[in-house]
Design a protein that fits this description.
Blueprint: H1 2-17, H2 57-61, H3 65-97, H4 105-109, E1 121-126, E2 131-136
Length: 137
Amino acid sequence: MRTALAMLIVSGLLLCGCGPKGDPPAQEPQGTDTKTEPATPPAEPEPKQPPAPKPTDEAAKKPKGYIETVVSQPKRMRTKFNDLALKQGLAAYKAMNGEYPKTLDDLKKEGMPPPPPPAGKKYEYDAKTGSVWLVSK
């Protein structure tokens, strides 16, 4: 009996589930020209990027970013090192002799030659204050 009842319930559910679903779609009258709209609007074209500027001769000569750092870093470090070495040499000379040298050549005599200046430059020296700076040749 239980089996028959279960079979009746299952077959009832199957018959209910297989029925028609909703109203059929209405048909367009023949002879009319209708256009169908797309489900999604057309995508807007992406704005065009302006063309990259062409490098001028000046811009082409200058390295940018990483390359600039790599190329210029040794020059800056060498300049800083030379400045520091020269100032320490002058301070050491003053500590040993009680005064700054009269010329930078006096540092050579004491065994502390000044580092060479960068290309196209020369050192100017004030013996009273011990100040050194670079000037063009």
